[in-house]
């Protein structure tokens, strides 16, 4: 079978790899679509993973083989599945920090989403696999995983009707957060980015104001938009380290900052420590998603509470992963969500 294998920065090869064999409780899926995630882009640009590796985790497809012991699924089912599974019993899981569980990152689909066929291990089948409703296309279903990550992040925030929200980053995650917070009844939503195209496109999701950070100072702009109060919630949805400091300076007293992006780990920044005690701001991190979000996310897309189609701007072939990566980072390519199909 073919897979798009990541070897090095600028070196992705569409090549022949062994088709995985499945064992007890496992399922073999023919990949029908796989989203290109911001974390895939980050890994490929900065080589933060051991290589060679097949990336991609926003995969969906059709079951072509089921192992002994699989009872809930059969050949022909259209399915969603996640790549990581917590153990549900360790000290982190008991505290509902499922994505910090040691088992979480040890579990994975094989070889990865950017592959013609994917072996889904027993734990992933049992805890994360769902049959995709007929009304949901494979393309839209690729958004179940990123939407679930957003749902997990939102659980950590205390959001109220009328809140003012700043979303930093008008990519797919920004567009998902926009739709989610609007559905929760927040007041105004502001979005910042460097791409005029994305800022224009995201206006479709009920945005009150946009800020191009190439042209405007974000803190000044937010002050202008909020009568010098700041926003109640700032969501960092772009992996630019300076955004964390900006986010902290954009929230009102009592404000919450949700950090939703990987930064390069050695990044140090100066933050006014008084903001935590005197202004009671909080900074909350959120990584990945858990088995408790997938069916909720899937139903939200199926019920059109989240408009997936509006977000998908490009569909490319598995053989074109490198092109997809370059498109995602080229501001002139006007991309929001890129989907890879076999
Ligand atoms: Zn993702
Ligand atoms: Zn655990």
TrEMBL record:
Keywords: Metal-binding, Oxidoreductase, Zinc. Coiled coil: none annotated. Its cofactor is Zn(2+). InterPro entries: ADH-like_C, ADH-like_N, ADH_Zn_CS, ER, GroES-like_sf, NAD(P)-bd_dom_sf, Zn_alcohol_dh. Residues 10-340 form the Enoyl reductase (ER) domain. One of its GO terms (molecular function) is zinc ion binding. Pfam families: ADH_N, ADH_zinc_N. It comes from the Bacteria. PANTHER family: L-THREONINE 3-DEHYDROGENASE. Belongs to the zinc-containing alcohol dehydrogenase family. This is Alcohol dehydrogenase catalytic domain-containing protein. It comes from Anaerosalibacter massiliensis. The lineage of its organism: Bacteria, Bacillati, Bacillota, Tissierellia, Tissierellales.
């Amino acid at each position: 079978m073919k897979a798009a294998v990541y070897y090095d920065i600028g070196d992705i090869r569409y090549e022949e790899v062994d088709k995985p064999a499945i064992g007890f409780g496992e399922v073999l899926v023919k990949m029908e679509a796989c989203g290109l995630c911001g974390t895939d882009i980050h890994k490929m640009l900065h080589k933060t993973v051991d290589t060679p590796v097949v990336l991609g985790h926003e995969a969906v497809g059709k079951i072509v083989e089921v192992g002994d012991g699989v009872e809930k699924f059969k050949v022909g089912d259209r399915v969603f599945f996640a790549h990581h599974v917590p153990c549900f019993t360790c000290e982190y899981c008991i505290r509902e920090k499922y994505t910090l569980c040691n088992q979480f990152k040890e579990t994975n689909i094989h070889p990865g989403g950017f592959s013609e066929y994917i072996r889904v291990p027993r734990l992933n089948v049992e805890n994360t696999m769902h049959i995709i409703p007929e009304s949901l296309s494979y393309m839209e279903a690729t958004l179940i995983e990123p939407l679930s990550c957003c749902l997990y992040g939102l659980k950590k925030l205390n959001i109220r009707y009328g809140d003012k929200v700043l979303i930093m980053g008008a990519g797919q995650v920004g567009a998902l957060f926009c739709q989610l917070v609007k559905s929760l009844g927040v007041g105004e939503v502001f979005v910042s980015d460097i791409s005029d195209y994305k800022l224009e496109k995201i206006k479709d999701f009920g945005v009150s104001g946009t800020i191009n950070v190439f042209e405007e100072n974000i803190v000044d702009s937010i002050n202008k938009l909020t009568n010098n109060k700041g926003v109640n919630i700032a969501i960092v949805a772009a992996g630019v380290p300076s955004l964390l400091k900006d986010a902290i300076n954009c929230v009102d007293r009592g404000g919450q900052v949700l950090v939703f992006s990987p930064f390069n780990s050695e990044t140090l920044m100066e933050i006014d420590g008084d903001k935590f005690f005197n202004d009671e701001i909080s900074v909350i991190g959120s990584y990945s998603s858990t088995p408790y979000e997938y069916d909720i996310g899937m139903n939200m897309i199926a019920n059109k509470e989240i408009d997936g189609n509006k977000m998908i701007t490009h569909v490319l072939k598995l053989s074109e992963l490198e092109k997809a990566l370059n498109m995602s980072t080229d501001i002139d390519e006007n991309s929001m969500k890129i989907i890879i199909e076999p």
